[in-house]
Amino acid sequence: MLTWPQPCTDTSTQNLDLIIKMDPEMDRQLKVGFIGAGNMAFGITKGMMSGNILSGNIKVSAPSIRNLGRFQELGVPVTHSNTEVVCGSDVVFIAVKPHLVPHVLAEISPHVTDRHIVVSVAAGVTLATLEELLPENSVVIRMMPNLPCLVQEGALLFARGSNAKPEDGALLRSLLHRCGLVEEGPETWLDIHTGLSGSGVAFVYLFAEALAEGAVKMGMPSALAHSIASQTVLGAGRVLCDSGKHPAQLRAEVCTPGGTTIYGLHTLEQGGVRAATMSAVESATERARELGRRSSARCTK
């Protein structure tokens, strides 16, 4: 049964003192809701549950049961009512497709109060649009995650709205720290983050695929080549994260004079891999900006 133990009529007892927002150890007292049950919602939920948030303190809504089953397997309560989620939550994640945001916010706005923090992960929907569609003085944060959130290795960047205080950002960091890297920046960086990290995941997959195909060309079995390529990308990323060194320094450490690596790097440079990668991030960023303008125009009509 899709039930929720707390009534929606009286939320006064659910108001949390400011100290809860500032103390990560108090996270477990928070109620967190998700409107939308896609991959990002699922990945963030898994990350929070690996931290201080109990499954019973999370609730997820979606119009169809199709995506709710995996949340139920985690012990997370589910519902078909977006209003229930808002009424029973302190932090509400809007995790629906951008074109659905106006409809969802219109539905939940009568139930959003100054105790709520509304976090949107809808691509392209700006803070200004979110604040316009929600009640005056609503606390809004816009965030962009990426696919590796599913395995708690995500890169998440968020920007605070005009009414969101530093402690609201601190709370979000505390909730999401098990999801991967969590950083705050100005909203103008979010589209760049989309090009760098959102789309960048696919760029890395393409490079891993090419690595494996190169090995297949030279005679290695495909399955083994793809397994080694995956581990190579994983290991290189871990060294890059843990060492704190610039990529160029690590690259130089792998090269030996006249060795195999410098010959291979020369071939990559001849093929324009550096310029092509930079251009790919630029193109993806510009596309994110374009889609954002279109989304904002639709949401404000």
Automatic annotation (TrEMBL):
Its main location: cytoplasm. GO terms for molecular function: pyrroline-5-carboxylate reductase activity. Gene3D superfamilies: NAD(P)-binding Rossmann-like Domain, ProC C-terminal domain-like. Pathway: Amino-acid biosynthesis; L-proline biosynthesis; L-proline from L-glutamate 5-semialdehyde: step 1/1. Its EC number is 1.5.1.2. NADP(+) binds at I35, G36, A37, G38, N39, M40, A95, V96, K97, P98. Transmembrane segments: none annotated. One of its GO terms (cellular component) is cytoplasm. GO terms for biological process: L-proline biosynthetic process. It is an enzyme of class 1 (oxidoreductase). It holds the Pfam family F420_oxidored. Residues 187-291 form the Pyrroline-5-carboxylate reductase dimerisation domain. It catalyses: L-proline + NADP(+) = (S)-1-pyrroline-5-carboxylate + NADPH + 2 H(+); L-proline + NAD(+) = (S)-1-pyrroline-5-carboxylate + NADH + 2 H(+). NADPH binds at N82. It is found in: Cytoplasm. InterPro entries: 6-PGluconate_DH-like_C_sf, NAD(P)-bd_dom_sf, P5C_Rdtase_cat_N, P5CR-like_CS, P5CR_dimer, Pyrroline-COOH_reductase. The keyword Membrane does not apply. Keywords: Amino-acid biosynthesis, Cytoplasm, NADP, Oxidoreductase, Proline biosynthesis. Coiled coil: none annotated. Oxidoreductase that catalyzes the last step in proline biosynthesis, which corresponds to the reduction of pyrroline-5-carboxylate (P5C) to L-proline using NAD(P)H. Proline is synthesized from either glutamate or ornithine; both are converted to P5C, and then to proline via pyrroline-5-carboxylate reductases (PYCRs). PYCR3 is exclusively linked to the biosynthesis of proline from ornithine. Belongs to the pyrroline-5-carboxylate reductase family. This is Pyrroline-5-carboxylate reductase. The lineage of its organism: Eukaryota, Metazoa, Chordata, Craniata, Vertebrata.
